[in-house]
Amino acid sequence: MIQFKKVTKAYPNGFNALCNIDLVIPENEFVYLIGPSGAGKSTLLRLIFMEELASSGEIIIDKYVLSELTPVQIPYYRRNIGMIFQDYKLLPRRTVYENVAFALHVMHVSPKKIREQVDYALDLVGLSGKKTHYPRELSGGEQQKICIARAIVNQPAILLCDEPTGNLDPETSWEIVHLLTKINAYNTTILMATHDTEIVDGIPKRVIAVNKGILARDQVLGTYVQ
Amino acid sequence: MTGINALLFFLNETFIGIRRSRLMSLIAVATVAVTLIILGLFMVISANIGRITYDIASKLDIRLFLKKNMSIEDIQQFKRKLKSIEGINDVVFIDNDTAWNTLKEHYSHLQFDEFIEKNPLPHSLIITLNRSHDIAPMILYLKRYNTIIDDIVYGGELAERVDVFRKFISLFGWSLIILLVMSSLFIIVNTIRLTVIVRDEEIGIMQLVGATNRFIKIPFLIEGFIIGILGAGIAVTVLILVYNPIVSQLVEELPFLPFITNHSSLYYIYGFVLMSGAIIGTVGAYISISRSLK
Question: At B173, phi and psi to the nearest 5?
Fold first, then answer.
């Protein structure tokens, strides 16, 4: 469960990225987060991932009250959340397998479990045959799939997707969204920031629209344009 | 992850890091090596001076150089008087001709005869004390005979002078060592800092997938430790290789000085050098990575 209670994020230069956001996303939901560039979508995701801290209000993610977490607790909290990025953020000098396994190494998982879980995640995203490839040897879509595999390899409860199809062609974008839908079916809450009208309209889900830092619309089975 | 698996993972990460910044790592190893060679040299020199000081101080001989106007008969009488004093074990008379011939023989390559025509040495007496006897009161007693004795030379005085020299060398050496260690630390900090900057994106990704700061730090600390211990290893090898030939030469030139010829007496210095390398490397890496993870 993701809960925002009157959350505001203000920057020192006076810009308010988010204002008084109230939001509840129950477990296993798939939510599109839409809005123009600079509307506050990425800020909202970064607040959940604790890359940034809210200026006021309270964010509760499952059992965690984020304002109460100490810097030492943040890495442990992040292990419950997967994040995928528009620019993939992969380790270029490591193979597909190593990139995905890395997320488990940091959690001190045993080598046997790492093998099992990585194989499962790569199988799920359809990259089992490319374990030994390096990211640069793969297409954008395949790199995004590595990123997804890495995000889900430790089976997090929540998956945050920051414009995951932003750099991909329409066909690959559909492939990625179908993959995310499949992951959602395995009881993972998905919050996906996107500009892609066709996807939002093509696979109807709950739509949360933000504009100029304000929650403009919250619609069950919504469309991109109201 | 079991301990051994974690260790293997961290070692692998460390070697990936070292491979990526090979040149900087080599420079850091060389810097540590140079610093520790100097540290080791000072310690070795200090240990040898310490040995010499101890040796001189432990010899209880007192040499009395007598006034030139003393006749052989007067000297023999004085010798008998000294022999009767409690605490004096033996008194040996060395006439100036014997002393002069011995000196010329010992330093035959200097060919004294070419520029010194007349024997400049006085007659002398060598007093050996009983081991239990304190040398200082004896010197005070002997100083009363200033009409007979021209100069008194004894181990204690020389040892004191050598000790002052050793202290000076020590002070100078340690000041230099502190400076070198600081500069070495500075270079290590910046070398590791460069490898951290190169891997900045990677560190960011590590944090995104939930790596703790400790997890991120460990490979860098091992890298620092390896750089330090490699530098120290080179320093110890150089010291061992250089020490033997130099000491052999010194023993030949100055056979009366008890230089340390047995390597096992220097093991503690080599151990200290290795430990210093490991500490410099690890502390340097810790400072560097801690700054980056703030």
Answer: -60, -50
Fold of the domain spanning B61-132: Alpha-Beta Plaits (3.30.70)
Question: How would you classify the pairing of strands A189-193 and B61-66?
Answer: unpaired
Token pair in block for residue A148:
């997804």
pLDDT digits (tens, 9 = 90+) for A56-95: 999 999 999 999 999 999 999 999 999 998 888 998 888 9
List b or e across A27-53, with b for residues whose CB sees 16 or more CB atoms inside 10 angstroms. eebbbbbbbeeebbbbbbbbbbbbbbe
CA gap B54, B56 in Å, rounded? 6
Cβ of A106 within 8 Å of Cβ of B204? The answer is: no
Instruction: Locate CATH 3.30.70.3040 in chain B.
Output: 61-132
Predicted confidence (pLDDT) per residue in B85-107, tens digit: 888 888 999 998 898 888 888 77
Measured between CA atoms, the residue of chain B closest to residue A151 is B209
* ipTM > 0.90 for the complex: no
Contact A70, A112 (CB under 8 A): no
Q: What whole-number distance in Å separates Cα of residue B48 and Cα of residue B38?
A: 15
Pairing mode of beta strands A189-193, A158-162 = parallel
**Is the Cβ pair A110, B2 closer than 8 Å?**
yes
- pLDDT of B237 higher than 90: yes
Rounded to a whole number of angstroms, the distance from the CA of A205 to the nearest CA of chain B is: 27
DSSP H stretches of helix in B107-212: 135-142, 155-198, 200-208
